[in-house]
Structure formats: C-alpha cells, structure tokens
Amino acid sequence: MVRPTLIGFSAILMWSLLALFSSLSGAVPPFLLCAFSFAVATLVGLLATSRRGKPRAPAAKVPLMAWIVGVAGLFGYHFFYFTAVRNAPVIEANLINYLWPLLIVLGSSLMPGEGLRWHHVAGALLGLAGTVLIVSDGGRFAFDAEYLFGYGIGILAAITWASYSLMSRRFAQVPTRMVTWYCAAAAVLSLACHLILEETVMPADTVQWLAVLGMGLMPVGGAFFVWDYGVKHGNIQVLGAASYAAPLLSTLLLIVFGLGALTLPIAIACVLITGGAVLASKDMIARPRRKPPITVS
Description:
The chain has 297 residues and is mainly alpha-helical. It has 15 helices and no strands. The protein has one domain (2-283).
C-alpha cells in the first residue's frame, strides 16, 4: 500500500504547480484553460496506452456509474470551483473548497475495509488549520451573506472532489487508463462552457502556451491519472490529509519565483501542514515490527 500511496502523493506535488502555471498563462479564461488542459491530458493518456501496447478497455466492460463518477468528478469539480470564485471572494471560496481533504478523511470511514482513527482526523484538522492561514492571509477573512450563492457552490466543489475520490475506490477494477476518456469528455464539456460563458482569449506568447501545456501535463491532466491509482490502491486517509500540502507547496513555489513573500503565517502553516501529514501517516511510518518466530530447542 505504500507504493500506491506515494504515487497518489505525486498528484499533490503536481497540483502545487497550478497557481504558478495559471499565473504564467496570461488572460486565458478558466474554462478555455481547462479545455486545453484536458485535451493535452487526453493525448498523453492515448500515447501512454499505445506505447504500452495494452488493449483499451471496451466501454461496454466499464460500469456506467464509473463513467458518471469519472466525468462528473473531473468536470464537475472544476465547473463548481470556477463558478464559486466568480460569485464569492476568492479567499473565502478557496477556503471552503479546501474542505475536500477533510471530507475524504472523514468519508473514508464509510468505505469497505477502511478504518478511521483519531490521528487521521487530527492530521486532517491540522492541515486545514494551516490552509486557513495560507488562503486567508494570516487568518483575515469575513463571510458575507451577499455571497451565499458562491459559498454554496464552493461547498459543492469540495463535496464533488471528495465524492469522486472516495467513489473511485469502489471501482478499483476499472483501469486507470480510463481516466483518458474522462479527460476527453471533460475537455468537450469545458469547451462548451467556454463558448457559452466566456470571451475567447488565446495564449499570447510562447511562455503562455508552455504554461498551458504544463497544466495539461501535470496539475490539470497528468495528476488525475496518478491520483486515480493512489485512491484506488493506496491509503486514502493519508492521501486526504497530505492533500493540504498542495496550497502550501503552491505558495512556496510562488515565493521562489518572486510572485509572493514569505511571512510568519506561511511559516506556521508549514509546521501545521507537515505535522498533520506526518500524524495522519503514523500507521505507515511506525509499522509494528514483526516478532521473530519462537524456536523450541
């Protein structure tokens, strides 16, 4: 279970690049950016499948519910997230959105063969506390009744991603390469939303095109493949709690590239999130040693 968990954690590392790539992509609107990214992810999935020489899973053998969960999870989450940040202040919307790791940890107790222990919950809560410091600029935020619609959509985004992650585990027999087709459907739906809701603004230069390509290769694309494998075969409680590292690493990357500043709240958040992830991973880190067999002479 350690290897799948580490593979799943690589998705969190990729998601930490989202803010950096988004800032480098210029004025490309969100749904068009998603359409490009999901299209790149689809191509990567097709190339990976063809190189391995594995036959593609016939659609008839994949349960309809797996299709619904996959497409609704990838596209639905991004639809709700972008709708939330358009209808509520981005700080509060982001904070509500980052309830999904905690929901994964708590919801995992309902999954067959899973158990929820105190350190899973404590680790997730420490991560949430650290995330509050990051996304709220040191704890300064205010919920306004004027933005209740946006807050509600933010809750739907968190529930959607947590549900997708938890329900994917129920379809562990569905190969991860099916994420290719989920991305293809999400690309089409994202393009439709762009044409209906946004004004088209294309990347203006090579840097912006490379940022768009990078998003499709990693945070809005490649990350979904490794996350699918991780939540299906790894320790889902650890992955849920460790997901709070994404906003932390994202903020640190912005600081490294000169797009942010290191502050005391961010330093405290480092301690909280790291400590929470370690606490949630206690079962994996401190495995009981096997006692040597007793021999009778």
